[in-house]
Amino acid sequence: MGFNEIAAKAVRAVGRRSGKKLLKKMGPAPELPRPEPTVITGEKYVCGYASKIVMPEDIKAKTYWIAGHGMGHVIDSVHDPITVSAMWIGADDNGGYVHIAADIIGLTNFELNLVRENLKDFMAESKCAGVFLSCSHTHAGFDTVGYWGQLYKLQSGKDPEYMDLLLKSLEEVTREAYKNRKSGKLYIGTIHVPDAQYCKREPNAMHDVLTRTRFVPDDGSTETWFMNYGAHPNTLGGSNRDVSADYPYWLRKTINDTVKTNVLFGVGAIGAVDPGMYSEDVVERTRLQGEALAKAALSIDNDKEMPVEITVLQHKYYAPVDNGLLALMATINAVSSQRYYCEKGDLGLALLTEMVYIKLGTQQILLLPGEPFPEVVYGGAAPAEESATGKGIEINPTPIIDIVGDKDLLVYCASNDMTGYCVTPNDFVLHETQPYIEQGKDVFDRRHYHETNSLGYLTNEAIAENVAYIASKVNK
After folding, report:
1. Strands 182-192 and 45-53
2. What are the residue ranges of helices labelled H in 56-197?
3. What is the pLDDT of residues 126-182, one digit of tens each?
4. What number of helices (H) and strands (E) belong to the chain?
5. How far apart are CA 253 and CA 103, in angstroms?
6. Could you write out the three-class secondary structure of the chain?
7. Cα 83 from Cα 434, distance rounded (Å)
8. Is the peptide bond before 203 cis (omega within 30 degrees of 0)?
9. What is the pairing mode between strands 421-422 and 45-53?
10. What is the reported pTM?
11. Model confidence over 56-69: pLDDT tens digits?
């Protein structure tokens, strides 16, 4: 028996003991509240924007771990700064919500809730229906989750002082965006950008739509655009050690070189989807990716004005955890989490997480945790004869757009929690003896990495079930 097989058995055993301890200590997971949707109407959209650079002063004097490409990689220098930006979206003075965009790999729901706790006074005074965070998922930023430190030393990759700076900055831009609100009109437009994506795993079910949510103030001042596109900001590659927002930096810069604009960015369904292959040189490729998306955004000509009606439903749920390695990271506090006993799955563990439904005028939006594959959201999973398991799409949950009943559903992923990949069941393959430690091989002898960084086989089912619950609420 090799080391990895011993390690796989060990982390599985630790996970199972954790589940039993939680059951003994806390009992079964408590039933979660089921709030009704909040509906906000008015005569005018009222939106505000704020942004802040979030960089430590001692970056060259202190060890910081870079996130996204393996553990234990130390940041050397800075290419461009990490920023967080917030957009208040409301109607008259009748309330609204805040949507934050951050140049980070992700943030746990546990830590986001710390920010929300500090914003309770703000939320009451502003009639705020929720504070939500969409991460760009840059693979060239600081480790803000804990995965990318030195696990063999039981060392988290998070720096406590930087995390304090980040969380305070999220709070600050939230309050500032509300203060900066102005009345105006809200538009949503789309454009297909197929060349800005590259899929490295079958069945190549990419969604190539770039969406622009555009606020135009009545006073003619600076517009605010919230961009969405499904491609990993990992263009700089695994050998990079420079801090960068990756291609979203160039997206924002290129737009602003043309017209002064407040630009926020969040990713769509990015499971196995990389940026376009614009150049062999990764630095050049990063710039070209951002420029291509910016030029596409500037060319959108199908804007639709949204009627002034906002619906918000924040929905908490339990996601079963089968990944013993991720469970171990939580057990040693490398990653922050709220865990409970769960009857489903292999370990008897579940993570408390959330998804959010928003409707802006006629546009339906979902904010999902983690990194779902496009076929989870839009369909297009492989049939039995082409699938990794040899099983057909009948074992997969219904695609999310079909559950919601909206092919134009706008989805922000890596939102409000970092829960790893979400893979359809008929494409989910684990190593037979070293699950979640070593990559498995499918019936075509193809390696499967993404499952090793997922909560487990039941993730797609949990997401689909809870989207269905939301749909039953908002479609009454």
Report:
1. antiparallel
2. 109-118, 120-126, 160-179
3. 999 999 999 999 999 999 999 999 877 778 999 999 999 999 999 999 999 999 999
4. 10, 23
5. 14
6. CCHHHHHHHHHHHHHHHHHHHHHHHHCCCCCCCCCCCEEEECCCEEEEEEEEECCCCCCCCCCCEECCCCCCCECCEECCCCEEEEEEEEECCCCEEEEEEECCCCCCHHHHHHHHHHCHHHHHHHCEEEEEEEECCCCCCECCCCCCCEHHHCECCCCHHHHHHHHHHHHHHHHHHHHCCEEEEEEEEEEECHHHEEECCCCCCCCCEEEEEEEEECCCCCEEEEEEECCCCCCCCCCCCEECCCHHHHHHHHHHHHCCEEEEEEECCCCCEEECCCCCCHHHHHHHHHHHHHHHHHCCCCCEECCCEEEEEEEEEEEEECCHHHHHHHHCCCCCCCEEECCCCCCCEEEEEEEEEEEECCEEEEECCCEECHHHHHCCCCCCCCCCCCCCHHHCCCCHHHHHCCCCCEEECCECCCCEEECCHHHCCCCCCCCCCCCEECCCCCEECHHHHECCCCHHHHHHHHHHHHHHHHCC
7. 39
8. yes
9. unpaired
10. 0.97
11. 999 988 999 999 99
Which two three-digit tokens encode residue 265? Answer: 């960015």
Six token digits for residue 398: 């219904």
